[in-house]
# Entry
Amino acid sequence: MKRLSVLFAILLVPCFAFTQNENYDCYPTHWWTGMKWNRVQVMLHGKNVADNFPMIKMGPGGIKLATGVKLTKINRVENPNYIFIDLVIEATAKPGTIKFPFVRNMEFSYELKARRNGNGVSFAQGVTSKDFMYLIMPDRFSNGDESNDRVPGMRDQTLRRDTVFNRHGGDLKGIQNHLDYLQSLGVTALWLNPVLENDMDNRTEHGYAFTNHYKVDPRLGGDKAYHDLVEAAHKKGLKIIQDAVYNHVGIKHHTVLDPPMKEWLHQWPGFTQTSYKDQVLLIHMQVRQIKRSWQTVGS
# Structure
């Protein structure tokens, strides 16, 4: 079976999936009604979770779970700790909780939320050449809430501003506190380094080593702080650009520690050096710079 693609978005509430002794991670944690793309693949991860899903014979239209919601396929992979569920959410679907009554030895339900109407505000306006973007690495900008500088249970507990190798304590509240200052510079759009959880042993300040695609890093303030920042920025007419390279994951992500299948990641049994040569790129850039210099001299 080839690699399955899971749809990603910023989501904030977990699905309801557990047994008496096991909790299961659910990707995406929920979905919405009224979406243009109405096919969603839900990934469940947990100890032998596949054993809780019996073989079910489905007709061409799948199985109806609720009004406008159909289960069209249950995908099994090499690792029994995963199951992938294909859903079709039609225009008639209503917000609420979808029950999966056929699973064994566990409780599993999935939430559909209503899309917000914007209340007269136009969201996702996009960025144009008229915008002045300001790039921020949240950990390096401003510490607005010292209570989240170190979060118990997370791997990286460093906090030293005199070195680039440790966390500095900046957070989303610190950015929110300085929106007026940023706006006074003429900024119209804030581009933040990824704010998703990076629960790695070290060098977690940059944000590009995701360990959870559906959770804002608690050292930046968590989900609520992100919501608060976005709402405050929008009230001032500022845009927020979400930086999230979804194929960037840290080695502590559960799909790395416990891959669904052997071909999930591009990897070898041992370290293998890539064929990438940055010298070629550097030489190309130098040649272009020399040509520009000649053109300037000639003019």
Observations:
- The longest helix spans residues 278-298.
